[in-house]
């Protein structure tokens, strides 16, 4: 186990963070291309909207995995956490744009939907919570905010939870996939509620 | 028996299947060779009434018994045995019993009906169905005078329907109509699409089509029809009564709690297609508005 851990940590040290940005961004134009060329089915707006939303949720979840991986398994991927968070924010933004511009199409109705439809209100709340986090994800803000930065970025927990609720609420009937996402999210949040063990590797 | 309904959409409104496929290939060639320009706009006629391709209609389905994704039914529904098939007709009828699908088909006259189809999720298609009027089938069984409603039930076969192994809904799927809605000449039992037998994912061997209501009212793969004097339960109403009423008429003025119903995306229009305004009773107002005279459609949504 220790050998595997050390190997992962050694490999991770060699991966530049810009590679993570590139890798995370690639699906965006790829799925857009599929949608334009009719390869996401005859009603491409919804699958594209859903794909971006799902990717956002997946990246948020990946970001939530970083700390427990370090605390419980000694795997240190903290260098990539900012990239994951910012890319998650990017996909939430893409998701929102596809919904507003290609799906709903009129500003009046976008506003109406945000106000009138609770699952959209919740989704928008999640986006609003992520906005200050994205804006403070630069070295200057991290230095400037100091201890407050860590507190502020705990808003992620609420944002990802709202994302999970948004997903469960938007599907028709009871569907398995959003429930699995929610279980994973709650599991990762629960790890943070338990007494914190001191990290095995000095940060 | 009910008077005949005259179709206003004709064969001229259908893109011939082969022509459609040819155009798809041409467009695919264009996309590969010359970039993406023009794809979004090319697929649409100005009036928005261009019927969907056979491919769209049979590859893009809601049929939760075979999975909740739009492509799940086309992938999974081949496991359903549709022949032999028996439909039980019971309740307040003169001749209750198990009717073999083959004998129903022999007794009925199949005709083509080109209908708009509007899903509660705010997408729509135009579909050339083949089928017969439900009124004719009910006439065959002999509706008794006290009957006020018709209840329908879908097959419930966990071995053949992977979706019913998970409680997405309370299986089997059930639906219902008021008797006058059921007897209306627009209401048909569809057994084909584009002149071909209806594929499993579209509700083989026989499904209901009620074109002025949201698509989920048009129950698929029917195994039982019951005449009753009580309003029957319906699956989506049981799952969420606040969102899915018994009537579920297409109504741009009654907003679904989760989807605005004022406009719709026409399937097949591409990524940049403009939404279309939704028509009252899905465009069949002239034919069916009289059924609801004096009713508050906001309360009876």
TrEMBL record, chain A:
It is a multi-pass membrane protein. The keyword Transmembrane helix applies. Keywords: Cell membrane, Electron transport, Flavoprotein, FMN, Heme, Iron, Membrane, Metal-binding, Transmembrane, Transmembrane helix, Transport. Residues 55-163 form the Ferric oxidoreductase domain. Binds 1 heme b (iron(II)-protoporphyrin IX) group per subunit. Its cofactor is heme b; FMN. The chain crosses the membrane at residues 15-35, 55-71, 83-102, 114-135, 155-172, 178-195. It is found in: Cell membrane; Membrane. The keyword Electron transport applies. Part of the MsrPQ system that repairs oxidized periplasmic proteins containing methionine sulfoxide residues (Met-O), using respiratory chain electrons. Thus protects these proteins from oxidative-stress damage caused by reactive species of oxygen and chlorine generated by the host defense mechanisms. MsrPQ is essential for the maintenance of envelope integrity under bleach stress, rescuing a wide series of structurally unrelated periplasmic proteins from methionine oxidation. Belongs to the MsrQ family. NCBIfam families: PRK05419.1-5 (NF003833). Heterodimer of a catalytic subunit (MsrP) and a heme-binding subunit (MsrQ). HAMAP family: MsrQ (MF_01207). This is Protein-methionine-sulfoxide reductase heme-binding subunit MsrQ. It comes from Sulfitobacter pacificus.
UniProtKB/TrEMBL annotation, chain B:
Mo-molybdopterin binds at residues 61, 64-65, 119, 154, 202, 207, 218-220. Binds 1 Mo-molybdopterin (Mo-MPT) cofactor per subunit. PANTHER family: PROTEIN-METHIONINE-SULFOXIDE REDUCTASE, PROTEIN-METHIONINE-SULFOXIDE REDUCTASE CATALYTIC SUBUNIT MSRP. Heterodimer of a catalytic subunit (MsrP) and a heme-binding subunit (MsrQ). Belongs to the MsrP family. It comes from the Bacteria. Predicted to be exported by the Tat system. The position of the signal peptide cleavage has not been experimentally proven. Residues 1-45 form the signal peptide. Its EC number is 1.8.5.-. Keywords: Metal-binding, Molybdenum, Oxidoreductase, Signal. Its cofactor is Mo-molybdopterin. This is Protein-methionine-sulfoxide reductase catalytic subunit MsrP. Coiled coil: none annotated. It is an enzyme of class 1 (oxidoreductase). Residues 81-236 form the Oxidoreductase molybdopterin-binding domain. Part of the MsrPQ system that repairs oxidized periplasmic proteins containing methionine sulfoxide residues (Met-O), using respiratory chain electrons. Thus protects these proteins from oxidative-stress damage caused by reactive species of oxygen and chlorine generated by the host defense mechanisms. MsrPQ is essential for the maintenance of envelope integrity under bleach stress, rescuing a wide series of structurally unrelated periplasmic proteins from methionine oxidation. InterPro entries: MsrP (IPR022867), OxRdtase_Mopterin-bd_dom (IPR000572), OxRdtase_Mopterin-bd_sf (IPR036374), TAT_signal (IPR006311). It catalyses: L-methionyl-[protein] + a quinone + H2O = L-methionyl-(S)-S-oxide-[protein] + a quinol; L-methionyl-[protein] + a quinone + H2O = L-methionyl-(R)-S-oxide-[protein] + a quinol.
């Amino acid at each position: 186990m220790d050998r595997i851990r050390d190997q992962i940590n050694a490999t991770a040290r060699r991966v530049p963070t810009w590679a993570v940005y590139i890798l995370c961004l690639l699906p965006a134009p790829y799925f857009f291309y599929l949608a334009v060329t009719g390869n996401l089915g005859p009603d491409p707006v919804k699958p594209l909207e859903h794909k971006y939303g799902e990717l956002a949720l997946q990246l948020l979840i990946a970001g939530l995995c970083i700390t427990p991986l370090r605390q419980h398994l000694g795997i240190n991927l903290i260098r990539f956490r900012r990239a994951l968070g910012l890319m998650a924010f990017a996909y939430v933004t893409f998701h929102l744009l596809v919904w507003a511009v290609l799906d709903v199409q009129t500003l009046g109705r976008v506003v109406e939907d945000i106000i009138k439809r609770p699952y959209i209100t919740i989704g928008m709340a999640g986006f609003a919570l992520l906005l200050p986090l994205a804006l403070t994800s630069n070295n200057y803000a991290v230095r400037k905010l100091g201890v407050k930065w860590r507190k502020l970025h705990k808003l992620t927990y609420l944002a990802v939870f709202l994302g999970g609720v948004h997903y469960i609420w938007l599907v028709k009937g009871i569907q398995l996939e959003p429930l699995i996402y929610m279980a994973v999210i709650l599991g990762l949040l629960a790890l943070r509620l338990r007494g914190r063990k001191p990290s095995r590797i000095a940060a | 028996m009910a008077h005949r309904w005259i179709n206003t959409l004709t064969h001229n409104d259908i893109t011939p299947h082969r022509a459609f496929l040819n155009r798809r290939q041409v467009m695919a060639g264009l996309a590969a060779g010359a970039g993406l320009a023009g794809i979004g706009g090319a697929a649409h006629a100005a009036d928005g009434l261009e019927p969907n391709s056979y491919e769209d209609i049979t590859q893009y389905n809601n049929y939760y018994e075979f999975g909740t994704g739009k492509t799940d039914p086309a992938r999974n529904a081949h496991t359903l045995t549709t022949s032999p098939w028996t439909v039980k007709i019971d309740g307040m009828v003169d001749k209750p019993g198990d009717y073999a699908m083959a004998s129903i088909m022999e007794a009925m006259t199949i005709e083509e009906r080109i209908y708009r189809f509007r899903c509660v999720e705010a997408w729509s298609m135009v579909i050339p169905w083949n089928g017969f009027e439900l009124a004719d089938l009910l006439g065959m069984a002999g509706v008794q005078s006290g009957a006020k409603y018709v209840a329908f039930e879908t097959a419930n076969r966990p071995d053949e329907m992977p979706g019913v192994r998970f409680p997405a809904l309370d299986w089997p799927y059930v639906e219902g109509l008021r008797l006058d809605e059921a007897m209306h000449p627009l209401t048909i039992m569809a057994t084909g699409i584009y002149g071909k037998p209806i594929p499993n994912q579209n509700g083989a061997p026989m499904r209901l089509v009620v074109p002025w209501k949201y698509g989920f009212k048009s129950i698929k793969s029917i195994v039982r029809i019951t005449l009753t004097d009580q309003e029957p339960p319906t699956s989506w109403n049981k799952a969420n009564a606040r969102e899915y009423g018994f009537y579920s008429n297409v109504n741009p003025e009654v907003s679904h709690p989760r989807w605005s119903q004022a406009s719709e995306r026409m399937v097949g229009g591409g990524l940049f297609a403009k939404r279309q305004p939704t028509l009252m009773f899905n465009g069949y107002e002239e034919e069916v508005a009289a059924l609801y005279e004096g009713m508050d459609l906001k309360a009876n949504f």
